[in-house]
């Protein structure tokens, strides 16, 4: 059986991201500089060849002009002999660098040379090689020599009497010019290498600055533990890494909320089930005892039944909280606000007949809400009011439209023990309970349900206490926040958001 090495990925990523970035920058720059250098050398070498060809052509042009206009200085008349004609022409010429001009008249060879190491003189003395050029069927060409590349051209000339024939050969040795090009290329390569080192240094510094947020993210990720999920990544600017940091912070927020929710569920389950389980066990012991009288056993049976209902209610609340993060937690309907308020009031009065219930006010209008979830939230508020009042105490239920009819406000008011400001402000903090004993159910679970329902409707839960009207718990819900959008509204909303972002920038 073939086993795949577990550290193969580690080996592939052993080089740090900073070095990989610098490596790619250096490699890309090196390839660009190499292409520029090769292209420049090819261009300069082509110029050497073109300059040599142009110099040869220029010499022939000057030779033609001299043949038409030149005169013998001794007679002031046109030349009658080819040899003095050639001598006179050569004496007036100054060859370009690397150039040699050779005149061949019969057995006579005349030359002038301006090339390093006198290759023109050596060629003029090499009669065999010279004859090859004179007798060649080509008027120009490129040949190799001991002194490198040799570009040449020839032109025939004749005396006026027609008895003498001669050849003018212009030779250009390009080795010196090519060596000069190579020296320039070497200098260019040196400058390029210095620039490459500078680029590598700048790339190293730039990569460090670019990767700094990533290192910060790694450090934050290393510092996050199950005991401490509060660390967040600093966000600066609006670039891609800043957006990534913002996304990771949002992810950490969700993880922290999920972890807190999980811990909260465990604590709430322990707190709300510990007392009823203990009392149920006591009741079962009484029922199992044969020594107890029938009245005591009936009382124990009622106690057990009551505790079972309490535990079932706790499980229902926990299940509702567990579903609150799901997208289909609420199913909005177009409902009458007056009817919704009356139903909440009627349910509260029916299930808690030992309190004085009053319908304080009802909102007139309609809204897009989930009536079942609103009823769940108000049931928790009602139960909270019942738990903190005495029998026959008055409790009021009401609703109204605020914010020019855009927000539904529903509440339950009781005259129990008032809350101080700190208690009121912290009451709806996430996963807070107010129970002081094991046997007493706290408000944390019920009010967590209220807040979850309000949040799911894009609303808020609130409490007012200390005034003459007593303590009031309620929720504020936008009436149209969950309404189905009409055709084109999504596009209009997206355009408005885009315009707002553009104005902020």
Automatic annotation (TrEMBL):
Compositionally biased intervals (Basic and acidic residues): 495-505
Transmembrane annotation, as ranges: 185-207
Localization per record: Cell membrane
Keyword Nucleotide-binding tagged: no
Region (Disordered): 484-505
InterPro entries recorded: HAMP_dom, HATPase_C_sf, HATPase_dom, His_kinase_dom, HisK_dim/P_sf, Sig_transdc_His_kin-like_C, TCS_sensor_his_kinase
Name of protein: histidine kinase
Organism: Kocuria atrinae
């Amino acid at each position: 059986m073939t086993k795949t090495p577990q550290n193969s990925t580690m080996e592939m990523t052993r080089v740090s991201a900073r070095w990989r970035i610098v490596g790619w920058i250096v490699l890309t720059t090196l390839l660009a500089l190499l292409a520029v250098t090769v292209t420049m050398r090819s261009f300069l070498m082509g110029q050497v060849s073109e300059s040599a060809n142009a110099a040869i052509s220029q010499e022939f042009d000057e030779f033609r002009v001299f043949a038409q206009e030149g005169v013998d200085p001794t007679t002031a008349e046109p030349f009658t002999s080819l040899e003095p004609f050639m001598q006179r022409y050569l004496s007036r010429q100054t060859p370009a660098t690397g150039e040699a001009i050779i005149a061949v008249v019969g057995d006579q060879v005349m030359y002038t040379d301006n090339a390093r190491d006198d290759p023109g003189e050596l060629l003029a003395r090499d009669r065999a090689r010279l004859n090859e050029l004179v007798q060649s069927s080509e008027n120009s060409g490129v040949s190799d020599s001991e002194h490198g590349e040799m570009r040449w051209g020839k032109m025939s000339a004749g005396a006026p009497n027609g008895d003498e024939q001669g050849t003018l050969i212009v030779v250009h040795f390009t080795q010196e010019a090519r060596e000069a090009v190579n020296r320039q290329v070497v200098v260019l390569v040196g400058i390029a290498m210095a620039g490459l080192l500078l680029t590598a240094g700048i790339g190293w510094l730039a990569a460090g600055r670019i990767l700094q947020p990533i290192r910060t993210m790694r450090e934050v990720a290393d510092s996050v533990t199950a005991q401490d999920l509060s660390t967040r990544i600093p966000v600066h600017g609006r670039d891609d890494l800043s957006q990534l940091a913002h996304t990771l912070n949002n992810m950490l927020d969700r993880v922290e909320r999920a972890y807190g929710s999980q811990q909260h569920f465990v604590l709430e389950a322990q707190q709300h089930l510990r007392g009823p389980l203990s009392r149920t066990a006591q009741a079962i012991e009484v029922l199992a005892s044969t020594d107890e009288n029938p009245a005591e056993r009936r009382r124990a049976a009622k106690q057990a039944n009551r505790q079972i209902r309490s535990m079932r209610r706790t499980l229902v609340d926990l299940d509702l909280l567990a579903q609150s993060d799901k997208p289909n937690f609420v199913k909005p309907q177009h409902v009458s606000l007056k009817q919704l308020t009356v139903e909440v009031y009627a349910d509260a009065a029916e299930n808690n007949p030992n309190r004085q219930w009053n319908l304080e006010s009802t909102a007139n209008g309609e809204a897009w809400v989930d009536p079942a979830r609103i009823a769940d939230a108000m049931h928790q508020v009602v139960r909270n009011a019942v738990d903190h009042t005495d029998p026959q105490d008055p409790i009021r239920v009401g609703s109204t439209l605020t914010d020019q009819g855009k927000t539904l406000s529903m509440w339950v008011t009781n005259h129990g023990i008032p809350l101080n400001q700190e208690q009121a402000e912290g009451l709806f903090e996430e996963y807070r309970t107010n129970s002081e004993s094991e046997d007493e159910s706290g408000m944390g679970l019920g009010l967590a349900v209220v807040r979850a329902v309000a949040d799911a409707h894009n609303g808020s839960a609130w409490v007012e206490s200390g005034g003459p009207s007593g303590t009031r718990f309620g929720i504020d819900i936008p009436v149209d926040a969950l309404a189905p959008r009409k055709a084109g509204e999504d596009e209009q909303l997206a355009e408005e958001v885009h315009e707002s972002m553009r104005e902020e920038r």
